[in-house]
Amino acid sequence: MDHLHEKTLNTKEIYKGRVIDLQVEEVELPNGKTSTREIVKHPGAVAILPITKQGKLVLVRQFRKALNKTIVEIPAGKLEAGENPSDSAKRELEEETGYKTDQLELLLSFYTSPGFADELIYLYWTDQLEKGFTNMDDDEFLDILEVTLEEAEQMIEDQMIHDAKTVYAVQYLKMRKWENR
Q1: Rounded Cα gap, residues 9 and 81, in angstroms
Q2: Which of 4, 19, 24, 50 is 20 to 30 A (C-alpha) from 170?
Q3: Are 153 and 174 spatial neighbours (Cβ–Cβ below 8 Å)?
Q4: Which residue, among 145, 67, 62, 61, has the nearest Cα to 99 in the 3D structure?
Q5: Residues with Cβ within 8 Å of residue 140, at least 6 apart in sequence
Q6: 131 has pLDDT over 80
Q7: CATH fold label, 45-179
Q8: Spatial separation of the C-alpha atoms in residues 137 and 151, rounded to whole Å
Q9: Residue that wins the pLDDT comparison between 177 and 81
Q10: Is there a contact between 50 and 89 (Cβ–Cβ < 8 Å)?
Q11: Does the pLDDT value for residue 181 go beyond 50?
């Protein structure tokens, strides 16, 4: 038995949205006392580390209202209900960058903010890209960038790349490149 487990006593739905749901749970703590937890429910997401034949990372630059600024990220998107993460990754890659692939490798999955959200991101990579056409959502506006690993590292230093999934992907690529020398 997990001695750290918190037993849910009551759940109250606060908000049901297009991207997230918010609920408040009353929980029994391991010491028998009670507390509340505010939880963001998210269907999960995919992110892709695409590398061109020239060895460049394909990134997107977009405005993020939650941050009120424009940042550079790897292509990513929300899982649709019942969608296989691999299929979602292929769809998001093509929608956002115009690149297609049939060769995706799952690197790992990770929780973005486990203190208050259940969002799980599946991170894929590919270096087998074919140029196609973008097909962005109606409310999606972004620029496509192709940068070297060194340029991406500088973007992290300059906080142009300022999100965990992209920083992780760039560091993974750096580690992999270093190991293959």
Answers
A1: 27
A2: 19
A3: yes
A4: 145
A5: 62, 95, 96
A6: yes
A7: Nucleoside Triphosphate Pyrophosphohydrolase (3.90.79)
A8: 28
A9: 81
A10: no
A11: no
